[in-house]
Amino acid sequence: MWSTAREIAAGDVVIAWMTRDLIQPLVITPGKDLNSKYGYYRHDDLIGIPYGSKVRSRNGKGFIHLLRPTPELWTLALPHRTQILYLADIAFVNSWLNVRPGSKVIEAGTGSGSFSHSVARTIGPAGHLWSYEFHEARANKAREEFTRHGMDDVVTLTHRNVCKDGFTVVDTVDAVFLDLPAPWDAVEHAKKALCKDRVTRICCFSPCMEQVLRTVSALNDAGFTEITMYETLLRPHQVDAAPPLEPIGAVSARLKRAEARREEKRLRQIANARLGRARTEGRQWREEKPSPEEQARDEAEALALAELDAAASRARAQSEAVSQSGASTPGPAPPAAGEDAEPRKITLSKAFPEVRGHTSYLTFAVLLPATAIESAHADADAGGAVASQPSSSEPPPPPPEDEEMTDADPSQAGVLQETKVSDDTVGPSAGHVL
Fold this sequence. Notes:
It is a single chain. By secondary structure, the protein is α/β, with parallel strands linked by helices. The protein is built from 13 helices and 15 strands. It has helices spanning 43-46, 71-77, 87-96, 114-123, 136-148, 162-165, 187-193, 209-222, 248-280, 292-327, 370-388, 410-425, 430-433; strands at residues 13-19, 22-27, 33-36, 39-42, 54-56, 63-67, 104-108, 128-133, 155-159, 175-178, 200-206, 225-230, 237-242, 346-351, 361-367. The longest helix has 36 residues, at 292-327.
């Protein structure tokens, strides 16, 4: 579909990956530029570098990754002309419709071409995709993209109203996908396009439950079986590797060291404040010998500063003692020689806060081969004929009426009843016993 060369060439389609939410397709054209908040890039500088390269901007604002296009990346980066199918729905539809290499598939509602690219890759050059689009401008734009991506041999795009005019193929395809506002109007046309000599499948993509109900009724009337409806929701998770949590003892020791440093800083600030206050009281240092009163005041201030330094030293010593005690806190025993060491990092997984909600309902159905349907009808007709045919055997004789035994003695009735049971069970000799 896209270029298979190792290096990027002029005219290639590449995917510029900037962030997880900002992915942009580029057609490499000499002389053009790419400007974004992540920097300035010239297309000429991108020619010749391998796919998957990390390219830094010319103005130093950031970098981008240049990736080879795939249907998954194209779904994330394509220009939206309509609502598109995303990866979860595409994978589920391809699996349920049993799309495989060599399959022949119909798609009604080309739209932006998201589903078309995935199907084209799955069926390969041995298969074929017939795609139909009602809107002429969208059909022309999609046709240009298919040609640029090298899909002309696999995809046939037609501008057509399939609900009124039907499809251009009859008894040909293995699967039909309907992405239409009124898929029930195209069910009969889809039945004509499906092969009659094998099991074929159909899928209808509808955003509303009312559409699903009308589609199910149309599928039942057309003779489809195994009608089911699904809704797919995607919940992505982000996995990160983080360092393991520290033991409680180490955290407590670190907090105590921080508290000791704060106390030392507080005492130092007090000493500096006293020294500054003493200087602002007007005491001036002179070259002559100070008076006895000034000398006594200086000695008192020196003594106070010494006491503050001693207190700071004691706080520092206490901090070191706490640090040593925290370092010597007994922890878990080291692993034995045969055991695995504790991992340096732990893996964390968290779901994204914003999860993509409902897109549409997927209604699937199966169409059995014509031979299977005919044989089932024949078996049903034969069963009905056998049930309605009258029996040729004579009706069983009516049971003896009760009036014959009403005039007999009760004891005789008991004897007669016993005689009948004996005749039926033990044979003719039972009469002699009675």
